[in-house]
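[audit] Reproducing an earlier prediction to check determinism. Same input, same settings, fresh worker. If the tokens differ from the archived copy the diff job will pick it up downstream; this log only records the rerun itself.
[audit] input (272 residues):
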Amino acid sequence: MNTWINGRGGGAIDVRDRGLQYGDGLFETMRVRAGRVRLLAYHLERLQKGCRRLRIAGPALRVMMREIHSIAAGHREGVIKLILTRGTGPRGYRPTGRERCTRIVTWHALPPGGDDGGTPVRVRLCATPLGRNPALAGLKTLNRLESVLARAEWSDVRIWEGLMCDLDGNIVCGTMSNLFLRRGSTLMTPVLDQCGVAGVMRRWILATARELKLRAVECRVRWQDIRDAEELFLSNALVGVRSVGSIERGRQRLRRTQFSSADELRARLRLL
């Protein structure tokens, strides 16, 4: 792993940094293919939106773009992670308003299974719930403890992902992905107005649905919707689109054999 802090290679993080002390920050995980970041504009738009909502004075867009382009150009395949924190400050929750944003960029090799493969995966329903907070819903903040706890629920390497529900039992997302369900020509994905992360790949899929003659709907998703769906797939920035072949809920296991929409989306992703 290579690291750059505020544009300089290596270095160390001040222990007073609010990202470390309070999770006061945001991050983006970006897929590099052929020396370019896929959906970079979406990543940076989400990051800037998050900075505005958290009132973090982030770096100029041109600074982030120049740094990311430079790192991506030196590699063919891999992952760039960009972290922005509010910066260092005195002890206590209240920001002073004088903090200077800390920018951390790391380069990683592509993880196993990060090749946009079309092999259907096995998923499970997690017991760890997502708490509601409309003020943070959709953002990719540094506070990911709910996902950490949910991911710790299983060690079976055959299970690729776990789905998480809110406190009312609505299925919201995976620990690291967004969920899509297709029934006929309707493509559904959980609405993220109370919790969950609005992924950049989710945004691209919603924008692309019309080209596939699908009607995209954001709505509350229950277990019965999962049972009734003809096709299930998951998405994130690294793996693109992953078809769900089976989903476990306790001792129940549902199997799916239709993957047409996911196949079409994967074909279009290869052109990006």
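[audit] rerun output stored. Observation attached for the diff report: The chain has two domains: 2-108, 121-269.
[audit] end
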